[in-house]
Specification:
The structure holds two protein chains of two kinds.
Chain A lengths: L3 E12 L2 E12 L3 E5 L6 H8 L7 E6 L9 E4 L11 H7 L8 H14 L15 H13 L5 E5 L7 H18 L2 E6 L2 H7 L2 E4 L11 E4 L8 H5 L2 H18 L5
Parallel strand pairs in A: 3-7, 3-8, 5-6, 6-7
Antiparallel strand pairs in A: 1-2, 1-4, 8-9
Helix pairs in contact in A: 4-5
Chain B lengths: L5 H21 L11 H14 L1 H31 L4 H14 L4 H12 L3 H29 L2 H7 L4 H12 L1 H26 L4 H10 L3 H27 L5
The chains are: A alpha/beta, B mainly alpha.
Chain lengths: ~260, ~250
């Protein structure tokens, strides 16, 4: 791929002889919004943990371009907000910039501009326990975008949010992505969310005898996307069906 | 329902017990020889403190021993409780040693400490150190283990937190709830060790004062010592809970 920011080549990972990732390769372009979708237990979160170096592979290569020192290539929004409950919102964001070369004033300005942008500035001194689930997740997302890294990984950050807040946060992620011009690798179970958000969806299969061959679907909608209009288009139904057929074949179950 | 300030809540039940006790003595339900009225004990404490500086010095001596023993034990226990979870060599050395020493009755170690350290201050501070150290270590270590099960350390790794931020702001602060419980248990047990040490080999301290009172059958003075220890105990619990109440939820 031209303008590639991440290349994964022949990646393998096993836990006690159980193959979790097998001979996996993928290529992500700079500035892309790529979603990884697959059934539970297929290794989506493990793949993100390999990209962040929380886990190390048994073999294979992960190459970011340009390669930054000290794993500065990626930041990550976790499934649960995982904000430090004993730190205020501001302190949570500030501590995440611990490695940054910015001085205190620059850090404060950057954090405040993000909080202003997300209309969370009034909650700067609040503690995570004082925030709603959606608000805490918003701070989790801001924390990921606040970093200097060019790639943001997101591990089902909206999976436990109610529908209305979920839609709001999906648009919030898209706004941040467009503003920050970062590359996003997004993991979700939600087909509708994946189609609405992504440029490309990578369908991750279970490890079988052969290598883990990813299926790919390019989303045929221009941006900005209109949610309701998109849902009624035949291209949407085709994409949805393609993903559903993949999941069906992986899980070997029949959907009505 | 009556709403009481949190501070007052600490004193309602002890005062109720004292009142019940006072009434039991007043109506001759219990023997005044063995259970002197709390009002008498309080008057006696007042007398001992204002007229006899020796009593005050005994209190200060006990507090000094508790402070020295605890100040040596607590930071070391916290540091070790955190370190063993992140350093395999240290865990290999420290875990079995702690597992062997912890179940030993601490008072059974005391004669050995006296042989090794002599019958002076050092042995008495040593036994307080041992008493406080293990409870603080075990409770803090449990906190660290609980923290490791969460994703907080993954967050710290992904965001490349500095050594200080990782160990102080994430691990230490994240385990503070357990650490404070350890502090409560440790200091409480420290008081037991203070008395034990002073009963046996001291000419100073509240334990010595009480032993002397027992020897001379001054029952009311035994109660004076107990009251002072009880006040120390309630103060420790109150202080630790006050600190906890003022922390954001951990």
């Amino acid at each position: 791929m031209e303008n590639s920011i991440l290349k994964v080549k022949n990646l393998n990972l096993s836990f006690n002889k159980l193959e979790v990732i097998k001979d996996l390769s993928l290529d992500i372009g700079k500035g892309e919004f790529v979603t990884i979708l697959g059934p539970s237990g297929v290794g989506k979160t493990v793949l993100l943990k390999l990209l962040t170096k929380i886990l190390l592979p048994n073999s294979g290569e992960i190459t970011f371009t340009p390669q930054e020192k000290n794993n500065l290539n990626v930041s990550m929004a976790f499934q649960k907000s995982n904000l430090f409950n004993w730190l205020s919102v501001y302190e949570n964001l500030k501590i995440s910039m611990s490695h940054s070369n910015m001085n205190e004033i620059e850090k404060r300005k950057k954090i405040e501009s993000f909080l202003e942008f997300s209309r969370m500035i009034n909650f700067s001194n609040s503690f995570p326990s004082e925030l709603s689930g959606g608000m805490a997740q918003k701070i989790n997302l801001i924390r990921a975008f606040l970093q200097e890294s060019e790639t943001v990984l997101m591990d089902e950050p909206l999976s436990s949010i109610d529908t209305i807040q979920k839609m709001e946060l999906q648009d919030f992620i898209l706004k941040l992505w467009e503003k920050q011009k970062k590359t996003i690798i997004y993991v979700t179970h939600d087909i509708e969310e994946a189609i609405y958000m992504s440029d490309r969806i990578l369908l991750l299969p279970f490890v079988k005898q052969q290598k883990q061959r990813i299926k790919e679907i390019v989303i045929p909608f221009n941006r900005p996307r209109k949610r309701i209009k998109m849902l009624t288009e035949s291209k949407y139904v085709e994409s949805y069906k393609f993903i559903l057929d993949f999941l069906k074949s992986e899980l070997e179950v029949e959907f009505q | 329902m009556i709403q009481l300030d949190k501070t007052y809540k600490w004193f309602v039940s002890p005062l109720a017990i004292l009142l019940l006790w006072e009434l039991s003595v007043y109506f001759n339900l219990v023997s005044e020889v063995f259970f002197p009225a709390p009002s008498e004990v309080i008057l006696r404490i007042k007398f001992l403190i204002t007229k006899d500086f020796g009593f005050l010095l005994h209190i200060l001596d006990s507090l000094k021993r508790l402070a020295i023993g605890s100040l040596l034990a607590i930071p070391l226990a916290i540091l070790l409780a955190i370190s063993v979870e992140f350093n395999r060599v240290l865990a290999f050395i420290a875990r079995p040693v702690i597992a062997i020493i912890y179940p030993l009755p601490k008072l059974a170690i005391f004669p050995l400490l006296i042989i090794i350290l002599g019958s002076g201050e050092l042995a008495q501070i040593g036994i307080i150190f041992i008493g406080v150290f293990f409870l603080q270590f075990i409770e803090t270590n449990q906190g660290v283990r609980d923290l490791i099960k969460t994703d907080y350390l993954d967050v710290a790794r992904v965001y490349r937190l500095s050594f200080w931020d990782r160990y102080f702001h994430v691990i230490f602060r994240g385990t503070l709830n357990h650490t404070l419980t350890g502090l409560k248990l440790g200091l409480g047990y420290g008081l037991v060790m203070v008395v034990a040490g002073e009963f046996a080999f001291s000419q100073k301290g509240l334990g010595f004062f009480m032993w002397n009172a027992w020897d001379q059958f001054r029952v009311i003075d035994l109660y004076c010592g107990l009251f002072i220890f009880a006040i120390m105990g309630i103060f420790i619990f109150y202080l630790v809970d006050k600190i906890r109440d003022n922390l954001p939820s951990v």
